[in-house]
Amino acid sequence: MKDETFYVTTPIYYVNDKAHIGHAYTTILADVLTRFHRMLGASTHFLTGTDEHGQKVEKAAQAAGMTPQEQADSTVVRFQELWKKLEITNDDFIRTTEPRHKLVVQKILQDLYDRGEIYRDEYDGWYCTPCERFFTEKDLQDGCCPECRREVEQIREANYFFRMSRRQDWLVKYIEDHPDFIQPSFRRNETLGFLRKPLNDLCISRPKKRLNWGIELPFDTDFVTYVWFDALVNYISAIGYLADEDQFTRWWPANYHLIGKDILTTHTVYWPTMLHAMGLPMPKTIFAHGWWLLGDSKMSKSIGNVVNPMEMADRYGVDAFRYFVMTEMSLGQDANFSEEAFMRRFNSDLANDLGNLLSRVLKMAHSYCGGVVPEAGAMDGPEEQELLSCVHQAASGMEEALDRMKIDQGVTGVLTAVRAVNRYLEQKQPWTLAKQEDKGPLHTTLYAALESLRVTAGLLQPVMPGKMQAIRLALGLDDGMPTFAELKEWGLLQAGTMLRKVPVLFPRIQKEEPPVILEKAGQVAKKNEGKKASSAAETPLGVITYDEFMKVQLRTACVTAAERVDGTDKLLKLQVDVGGIPRQLVAGIAQQYAPEQLLGKQIVIVANLKPAVIRGIESNGMLLAANDADGLKLITVDGAATSGVPVR
Ligand code: MSP
What does CATH list as the number for 552-634? Predict the structure, then answer.
């Protein structure tokens, strides 16, 4: 064990939408690493949380007819529920709207401003709204945002800037001198490549007239903090920076900031220069993993091809899902998600190799040894020696894999050992040995298999905590967590220990034809053509059946009255007529529509939405609007239509 403390972080997730497999992946990875380090005896601290300020969240709130805080409060619960479901053992969960975070951001800003690290200037440049970033003319690619390739708008305004450029030489040298700082190494080269161009100062403010939802600058109340400057600080505000010195020095610097490759620049350029200006040490490693792809494209809400982790866990079990994402993605590279690959891996590794091994060994131990761990003879036969070396190799390989951040390879090594146990049983044939007078060879064989199961299940426990604990219990062990030292030692299972029966751990997934996993929306539709509406259980993830869609009652409605909601410039209170029945709705369209513009309009509403109270006003339903880059645009009915008729 190298470090006594282990502090790992995930990115904090935007609360503009619910979590998808990309978010789940990083969080599971952080959890697996933390659990392994606990097994190594380290004191661990695992931080995750939510990024709740900025334009994305403000826009999502607008579209949902909520305040940004309401949007954050309702979405954060979904993340927290998902982490609970996925058995994530984070020690802390930070929300950037919490006072403990806002206060630290403001203290840092004030200090940097007082020391001349932040200055005010007039800015003339290009702004990408989805990325919330400024670019100079020469940064643009074909006139579009170099990051997301979407349109940018020209902006001229006063703002505050952090003197990032003056730290460029220092940063290049730091990265060159610390090969572990950015991993994998090709990402390090990517950042060094980025730093070959002159670095600009970083605009760290947004005028309130353009964006209200953020942490106010302590030295100018007309501005809020740029969401990235606010968000990155979570890694230190959560562990007590400027508030609890003892806690802070206990955990900082972090061992790992785990991130996706798309947020490399913010983490390897903005964050280090910010920390340097604060006089703080750098995190030990910023590790960027690849993307989960579906076909050739990144999963993204706007393409409509996201995989819902909650659905995967419900359908196949939490442990199997965790196992799949840890083994299918080689850390650092992109990986392709397909339900077919999931089922293949599940059936071969978990149902066949591991699950079968457990049930056959337990069955034989119950039939031939009275359900207790038998006494082993010497493990000096060639087959035993080979097995022992394979199991040892799995344990040391896992430790090495952890060090090199190659979890998938570590797990593959364990599965190799599991297969070796199956092979060993085939060679030794305990069912034949059981017929012999001398029970010694039978007992040695079954002991070796049971002990190998103790070690291999222990090595997989961080990845599949629930099922591997069930194996521990079946082996007569307690429900605790093994230490790495115990897994490197042979012979810890005590002869005479009662074994317990367990139900089949990984029942084979029987599917004649793998279901269509979300590809592009169009392809899914094509493959389903001609098929009758299938039951929910047979439906590809994220795709709904005709019946499910029909549960949403869309109706035309005529706006009869509209007024602004006090205390917000985003919401309108509408009275609508739905087939002669009056209704009240609250909608977040006040920035695009004046109340009088709406009178008499035939709009479309979701009529069977559970009523909600927004700003103390009851809202019965939701109107539909297109969420265009330049604002919300109402969906209206073409020509004269009766109010209250269904929309299909
Ligand atoms: N809020 C910022 C992070 C601030 S950290 C101080 C953010 N949030 S996010 O919700 O948009 O994305 C969070 C993480 O999810 C990022 O690391 C991103 O790379 C990751 N993923 C988003 N889509 C992904 C895939 N399809 N596959 C894997 N990870 C992906 O960015």
Answer: 2.40.50.140
